[in-house]
Specification:
The chain is of the alpha+beta class. It folds into two domains: 181 residues, 2-Layer Sandwich (BirA Bifunctional Protein, domain 2); 38 residues, Roll (SH3 type barrels), CATH 2.30.30. Helix content is 23%, strand content 36%. It has an eight-stranded mixed beta sheet, sandwiched between helices. The protein has a five-stranded antiparallel beta sheet with strand order 12-11-10-9-13, with no helix packed on it.
């Protein structure tokens, strides 16, 4: 384990731990967390994504969990984080898109995912980016940055830090505009409350805007499936 002050972040790094996200939870529970702390592991033995799905975490990829001060939940945060990840990947000459809620795709294949969890007065933003390897998954195709560009992990992490600071600070109208530019799922069918609808955008509060026939519906969070 190592400690480093990097830009305005406190970086805690490991060769391998069970989960950066779980470590962040433990750090908060023990009173050792502070704003702009990032936990970075070169590999994880028990990485996890949304709904506690396993996240394959071999050496060579980026596995990080950021801790930020947060007084209340904000539906808009997910979009800011997704744009920050996409912009970071794009900085290496790669052309990503965003699939709701915050999966990053390249050529239609998943290259990155994000897990946002609130704990106390903090929010933990867990991010995994496939750099040197990509897992084989039954439900969807995956890819890695190494297929497109040479990507040193430390440079990738520094750019991600800068983009998170940028996109979490700007007015949400700019986040919304950029997210819509990058969205891979606009005007696509989604299931909401057991019935199909069309995802047509997001509003200024971070709600998804769905259309069913001639009626528009605003929904939040995990109420829909794409």
């Amino acid at each position: 384990m190592g400690y480093t002050d990097l830009a305005n972040y406190k970086l805690i790094s490991f060769d391998k731990i069970p989960s950066t996200q779980d470590y962040a939870h433990e750090l908060i529970a023990q009173g050792g967390a502070s704003d702009h702390t990032v936990i970075w592991a070169l590999a994880q033995s028990a990485g996890r994504g949304r709904f506690r799905r396993p996240w394959v975490s071999h050496h060579g990829n980026l596995y990080v969990s950021f801790i930020f001060d947060c007084s209340e939940r904000d539906a808009r945060l997910s979009y800011s984080v997704a744009v920050a990840i996409a912009e970071t990947i794009a900085s290496f000459g790669i052309h990503p898109t965003i699939k709701w809620p915050n999966d990053i795709l390249v050529d239609g294949n998943k290259i990155s995912g994000c897990l946002i969890e609130y704990y106390g007065h903090f929010v933990i933003v867990g991010i995994g980016i496939n750099v040197m390897s990509n897992p084989t998954v039954d439900k969807y195709k995956t890819t890695k940055m190494d297929n497109y560009s040479d990507v040193p992990l430390e440079i990738l992490l520094k750019r991600l830090m800068r983009n998170l600071d940028k996109w979490m600070a700007v007015d949400f109208r700019y986040v919304r505009e950029r997210w819509l530019d990058l969205a891979a799922c606009l005007n696509c069918p989604v299931k909401y409350q057991g019935q199909m609808a069309t995802l047509v955008g997001i509003n200024e509060n971070g709600a998804l805007v769905l259309r069913r026939d001639s009626r528009y519906i605003l929904v939040y969070g995990d109420e829909i499936s794409v």
